[in-house]
Write a structure and sequence with these properties.
The chain has 18 helices and 13 strands. With about 450 residues, the chain is α/β, with parallel strands linked by helices. The chain has a 7-stranded parallel β-sheet, sandwiched between helices. It starts with 9 loop residues before the first strand and ends in a 6-residue tail after the last helix.
Length: about 450
Amino acid sequence: MDSKQSSNTTKVLMLPWLAQGHMTPFLELAKKLSTKNFHIYLCSTPIVLTSIQNRITKTQSLSIELVPFHLPPTPELPPHRHTTNGLPPHLLRALIDAFEMESPSLTNILKTLSPDLVIYDGFRPRRPTIASSEYNIPAVELITSGAAAVVSYAYHMFTKPGVEFPFPKLHLNPNQMAPRNDRDRAETRRRMESTKISCKMMLFNSFRELEGKYIDYLPILVEKKIIPTGPLVQEITDIGDKDLEILQWLGTKDEQSTVFVSFGSESFLSKEEREEVAHGLELSGVSFVWIVRFPAGERIEVEEALPAEFLKRIGERGKVVEGWAPQAQILAHPSTGGFVSHCGWNSILESLKFGVPIVAVPMHHDQPFNAKLVETVGFGAEVKRDENRRLDRENIAQVIRKVVVDEEGADVRNKAREFSEIIRKKGDEEIDGLVKELTQLCTEGKLPEN
């Protein structure tokens, strides 16, 4: 680690949570700031850093340094499990505890690098905020995984119990909400309390045209300045031969005729849900690329995971791929006309960047709220679950056809294209505003009094 930089360069230590869905927006923000006279120390566990090192060009590496952050290894959490990718679900709590405990590694990094600013992940705020306050370093929270709409709803419930949320269109019915237990609620409360330690600023991976009214409402709740970064979406990169085959297959389809089906890297359909999605795709009559994933440790042949004779019946109308596919390239392809998505925030922003409307099939966490936002703003439609939160194949087919084919979905398709044009025209407008805010914060040289 080289902590020597020119005197007019702002040194920023970034500390994202250990999930790819959190690392990607941090990395994209690092790339944007690195062109604005910021030197970035991107800090994570070695296994996470290894997974992203090929996404940093040689030129970018002059201003973006990857800094390993070591968690204490245990028999159940050896170093190769210091990431959520492929982590058995029962070990997630142990990983969270390891990340948030007192860490000589993080303390040593702060002392050695002496950054001007820490940008930390709002999902896991405790250790970075405490550590930075001990060294009198400004700490700014970046919300990567949830919309300002979702966060404003959560803070409203936390700070104004019994008061009606001022944006009723975001209200969820009980069967639209993912189940939450006492631990989830306690975790949310602890996370919100931790934001009090940071300075009077929160960054959101969003933009005003999408979430302006929620961005304006949040400061009333958190008493902090809310700064949108603009959509932090991974750029299109080179692909391998296997991925090229998918794009070549897409090239045989008509323009905007095909849906991309993916539920993210950490959301997995149950057997029943896979069957309903499969039959829904079949009933829709629409061409599709479906990325099928299974939890770590589950070795299931794709043919066995889908309804009998499904692959034979759909023939060349559908392509089923196990594991991973180049999402950005698929969404950018002219043949792609819809995205059947779990509504993770990164996927929503990526879909908007390329002007692809969304068929929302939320799974858990903030995804039901994100899906409601998608439908409320008008660039997608949600597949409704029944009172037992089960999916229905006919409803899936109906929503797919509405979003991609039917005349009643024209407004949805137009709205998605409008957002794509907004993002293209805005360019780095939000980043320029963010640079001004961060520079001013660092110039002050100390944490503001709370």
